[in-house]
Design brief:
Immunoglobulin-like; two-stranded antiparallel sheet
């Protein structure tokens, strides 16, 4: 899994969160879904009921991508 920060590298100190995108390479069966969860509210706090669903297109498969989520600035994020 790759977690990609979409915010600029020079972030002003008053910014409290950063935009994050998750990418996962997963060859799954037809009709199966891929989710990511992590230790922040925007990633579901490791609760499967609140995990973020990833999406793939016929052009990007087997790479799945999350919608952009916001995470606290300066915090190490754990995700699975």
């Amino acid at each position: 899994m790759r977690l990609i920060c979409l915010s600029r590298s020079r972030v002003r100190s008053r910014v409290r969160s950063l935009a994050l995108l998750a990418q996962v390479e997963a060859a799954v069966g037809f009709g199966e879904d891929v989710y990511v969860s992590g230790d922040t509210p925007s990633l579901g706090n490791f609760d499967p009921k609140h995990a973020v669903q990833l999406f793939a297109t016929t052009r990007s498969y087997p790479i799945w991508e999350s919608p952009v989520v916001s995470v606290p600035k300066g915090r190490v994020v754990a995700a699975a």
